[in-house]
Amino acid sequence: MRRQAGIETKPPDAKDLLDKAEANIKSARDAWEREDYAWAWAEARRALRPLRLLMHSHWQQAFTDLTKAADSINPKRPLPSASTPKRALPSASIPKVPPLPSLLITPVSCPPCISFFTLPELYIWTDWIKGGRAIDSAATWSRQETSTIPTPLSTPIGSM
Asked: pTM for the full model?
C-alpha cells in the first residue's frame, strides 16, 4: 500500500529497531525455556518499545506526506511583478495585505491519522490529494462490494 501511494523510503533506523526487538524476543524465549517467567515477561515487554518507535516513525512519515500533499494544492498568492504600475501615493499609505494563513492539518482533523492501524487508508487519502489513482481502485472495490447489497428502492417491499 505504501508503494502504491508513492512512499518508497523506510523510516530511519528501521533495521536497528527491528534487530533490537528480535534480540529481546530471543532473550524472552531463552528465559521462558529456563522457566524464568518474570524475566521472560520483562524481555517480551522490552521488545515492544522498539516496535512502538517504529510504528510511530511510520505514522509520522505518513502524516508528513499527507501535510505536504495538502499544502501542494493550497493556492499561492501571486507575487507582484515588475509590470505592476507604480502608485503615486507614498508606500506608507498603502495597506499591507496580510499573508494567507498556512494550511493546518492536525491528526484529529483527518480520520485515517488517528492510529497506526489506519495508515493504509491514509495512503489512499494522500494519493487522492496528489491526484493519483489509488482512489480509483478503492472506489472500484466499494462498487463491487455494494453491488450485491439490495437497496430499499430496488427491492419489493414484500421480499424484505
From this structure: 0.60
